[in-house]
Amino acid sequence: MPVQRIESNPRMSAAVVHADLVFLAGQVPDDRSLDAAGQSREVLAKIDRLLAAAGSSRENLLSAQIWLKDIDADFAAMNEVWSDWLPAGCAPARATVQARLASPEVLVEIMVIAARA
Fold first, then answer.
1. pTM of the model
2. Which one of 2, 41, 57, 86 has the fewest beta carbons within 10 angstroms of its own beta carbon?
């Protein structure tokens, strides 16, 4: 089975499709001046776009990994945006942890795996 790479560069691909699975790289916000809720909305919009490009959608999420710069300060805001974004009955397996992210301005990074529609 061929492997499809989306928005690929020499270092990484934003998404990789193999068989009926879509693997997204961790997505971070472009506008790093936003608060955790704003960054979460921006990241989830990127995820929507990449899933669509791969032939999937948020309704097909299997797994999600979420990293927060400060889980105490930002978990509630991120989780509210996540809950509003996620369709009813489509909750994936999920882990959320605090981590030192690649840039000090990044408050949220999200990576998902989905089935193709």
1. 0.96
2. 2
